[in-house]
Design goal:
Elements (H helix, E strand, L loop, with lengths): L4 H25 L5 E4 L3 E5 L5 H24 L9 H6 L1 H33 L2 E3 L12 H48 L1
Antiparallel strand pairs: 1-2, 2-3
C-alpha cells in the first residue's frame, strides 16, 4: 500500500497529540504522597493505585510511534520516486531541523520515562529506614514537561517533512533539468 505525505503527516501528529494528552493526564493523576506506617525498625509506605505509571508508559509508546512514523516519512519513496538519503543532509536547514527534532524526541522520552520508572520503583520498594517521615513519589512536573516535548517533537517532525519535501522537489528539478540537457545534447549530435 502506498502512503501519501498527508497520511503520514496525520499519523505523526495524531500519535504526538495522543502522547501529549496521556502525559498531561499522567502528570495530573500522579501520586502526591503515600501513607507511612511505622513498624519495628522500618517505615512501610502504602500507596493507593497509581494510574500515572501505565499512562506514562503509554505516553512514551505513542511518542516512539510518532518518532518512528516521522523518521520513516522523511525517507519514504512518495509516488515510487526515492532519492538518496545523503541528498537530504546536504540541505543545511533540513539537517539542523532533523537533529533538533531527534533531540526533542529523545528529551521528551527521557522526561516521560524517568518519573514513570521512578514512580514504579517507589511502589515496588515500600520499606524505608526509620526516620522517614514522608513516602517518596516520582518527581513532580517531569511528566508534564515530557508531554509538551512530545507535542513539540511531533510538530518539528512536520516541519522536517516540509523541508524534506522541498529537498525532494529541488532534487527532482535538478535531475529533470539534467535529463533534458542530455536529451538535447544527444539530439544535437544526431
Amino acid at each position: 500500500m502506498a502512503f501519501s505525505a498527508l497520511q503520514l503527516s496525520l499519523g505523526v501528529i495524531t500519535f504526538g497529540v495522543i502522547s501529549f494528552v496521556l502525559g498531561i493526564v499522567a502528570e495530573n493523576k500522579k501520586l502526591q504522597s503515600g501513607t507511612p506506617i511505622k513498624g519495628r525498625g522500618a517505615v512501610i509506605c502504602t500507596y493507593p493505585s497509581d494510574p500515572a505509571i501505565p499512562l506514562g508508559y503509554l505516553s512514551f509508546a505513542f511518542l516512539v510511534a510518532s518518532t518512528v512514523v516521522g523518521y520513516l516519512a522523511l525517507f519514504y519513496p512518495y509516488k515510487g520516486k526515492s532519492i538518496p538519503h545523503s541528498v537530504f543532509f546536504k540541505s543545511r536547514t533540513f539537517f539542523v531541523f532533523f537533529n533538533i527534532t531527534l533531540f526533542t524526541a529523545g528529551l521528551g522520552a527521557a522526561l516521560t520515562l524517568w518519573p514513570t520508572i521512578e514512580e514504579q520503583h517507589y511502589l515496588k520498594n515500600k520499606v524505608y529506614p526509620i526516620g522517614t517521615d514522608e513516602c517518596p513519589t516520582g518527581r513532580v512536573g517531569l511528566l508534564g514537561g515530557g508531554a509538551f516535548l512530545s507535542l513539540d517533537s511531533s510538530l518539528l517532525w512536520l516541519v522536517a517533512l516540509m523541508l524534506a519535501s522541498n529537498v525532494r522537489d529541488d532534487y527532482f528539478d535538478e535531475v529533470d533539468g539534467e535529463t533534458h540537457l542530455v536529451e538535447a545534447a544527444v539530439s544535437a549530435n544526431i
